[in-house]
């Protein structure tokens, strides 16, 4: 049997007609940027996340970058980010002109380790960006308490966490502002690039909206040196259709995860820990294996797709060698880079594939 790491076809097959009808509607409306479909999606996604504002933009990186600028973070400032995440979290800080300061992740939920955050705070620290890695919110309250005590901005990188929640509140509504990505592979994915900022702050929302539109609130009046980062009408209209299905699609992912958690019984494979305070979005089902190369070989041999998220910890990337970090600085992040492996999980994954993955892992 072959099991792909991911397959969009059950999801896209189910909404094919709606998507094509919507494409025709947008096509016939002959209006492609800044219109009713983007307005409607922004309202719907804000309601979904429980925030007063949502601003569509070009991608997840731009979302985080523009939040930082809107919050006044720039040259000479420091922003705390996890040592194991996708590089976009750190790049957003760099693009804002500030310096990313890495803090190790904890080994339970792979989120920023609250015990280590305090020691990384300096007089230049302005913000902390926890990442809801793999789709789960980690020890957020503890980080929030530190941010509050030191008067730091608390931002969420929610690019992997559409629909996740923490203590009853949706990811995206937990901090001062959140960046989302609608990259096709995310739980809520466009048919191309897209992103959004969610926030309850009127001032951040106002400035982000202008920044992504060439720094302009009013046509040909430019208050800031902004960017071109907008969510177009077509992507917004298509995302709105997918948003309607998201909870049901989440149930499917969640059921697959429960079956993996109950079925995979192998002492050399460490299963993901579920935070009792969180509803996991199960963007990825990340296991840890000490002998990952051998597990990779075993999966390849049995036709099971997998991915590694991520093979190099942030501080060891060549791109960030200028920050002067060394191997050994963030042991949990480094261990995750050596041991993490993401198993197939996608909406509509057939039962026989799930059982097959469980059996192949138990036979490792
Ligand atoms: C995907 C992702 C991003 C970036 O999103 P893009 O839309 O690709 O720019 C940022 N952070 C994390 C954790 C991601 O997974």
TrEMBL record:
User: What biological process terms from GO does the record include?
Assistant: polysaccharide biosynthetic process
Instruction: PTM N6-(pyridoxal phosphate)lysine: list the residues.
Output: 186
GO molecular function annotations of the record: pyridoxal phosphate binding; transaminase activity
**Keyword Disulfide bond in annotation:** no
- Catalytic residues at 186
Keywords per UniProt: Pyridoxal phosphate
Matching CDD domains, A to Z?
AHBA_syn
Per the record, the similarity remark reads: Belongs to the DegT/DnrJ/EryC1 family.
Which protein is depicted?
A: dTDP-4-amino-4,6-dideoxygalactose transaminase
Protein's organism: Harryflintia acetispora
